[in-house]
Amino acid sequence: MERKETGLGTAAADRIIQMLEDGPRTPAGWRQAMAGLAAGSGPGAYAVLIFVLTQLDFAPEKAHEHWLRILHQWEELNRRVPEKVDLRVAVLQYFLRSQRKLRNPAIVEIRILRRTQDSAIYDELTRLYNFRYFQDRLVSEVRRTMRYDAPLSLMMIDADDFKAFNDSRGHLAGNVALRRLASALRRTVREVDVVCRYGGEEFAVLLPSTPKLAALKVGEKLRQAVEKAGIGRDGEPGSRSLTVSVGVASLPGDAATAEELVDGADRALYIAKSIGKNCVKAFSDERREHARLDVALPGRIRLLEEKAARFDTLNLSEGGVLFHSKEPLPRGTLVQLQIEIPPGREPVECAARVLRAEGSRRGFEIGTEIVHMPPAHQRRFRFFLKRLKEGGAVSESRSA
Fold first, then answer.
1. Residues 52, 54, 55, 57, CA torsion sign
2. Which of 183-187, 289-293, 380-384 has the highest mean pLDDT?
């Protein structure tokens, strides 16, 4: 059976620490509170409770057994002594005398535990999660993604030209700028998203249950928020505010492991920095070369949050689509394409980024790179391209 997270920094640990500070005071109250927590978080909540109190790590089932015995012994203690004892005393009594597990008692004051927890998972300067916490959380989010077949996206974010900013303004101004940048990141994303200081002026944001197209939209929203915040401008004439470059990669489309996900987002960030900074770039495996096959297929294009329009493809590959459009599309625009694949013209959908737009007799020739396609659609798309390459028949397509 897979072991649950039992360390500090988990949601269950936060809830248990809160209950230790201002929660129940009796065995009955703790029995009910922990039963409710376990109903929502799973039996691993009992392992977290024992770990928080003693630093002893048990499997969930074994921790539950210990918990039931602690409750029973706690109730016995309260019947024998005039002054009621609290949970810490009951746990200490149980492990020192009954189980003899603790050579050096680890029962600590909860305020000390809270400070220890904070220093273990938070960056002191920005108050974001630190690199150590990011590594642990990344692994757990990847496992959750694999277990429930849900998407996971990662944004790697770097403050543009921060060394020059630091050198010209001084380290104190640089620290203030990093705090303001961290605040802008935290305000822009959802509460469930995990914002971390990766190191120096680099940050990472984990976006659970978020596919690549949605992550790209979040990345652009974040880039704009930082730009509008005017960090470092301080009213000085001619001074420029800080901007950020963002690289985005998603699982399972871009990676199969936590390491590959970080590598993909990092490579996308490098490209964003190299093409001019202050932009968002999605990961794509540019080492692959896809043969383009001439074919005319009808489809629909929908600009994000705008009305849909029809288009006709000129050629396709696993990496991109070239098509005719009656309207120009600016370079870098994110679009959602629906391509009608025969037989039956059931559309496959993908998110694409415009790489070029050139005028033609029919309007505009638009070249795009595919940045995301759902796995089921990707399988149908690849099968169609394989048939096309092998000379398979293609139904006559309609004109736009």
1. negative
2. 183-187
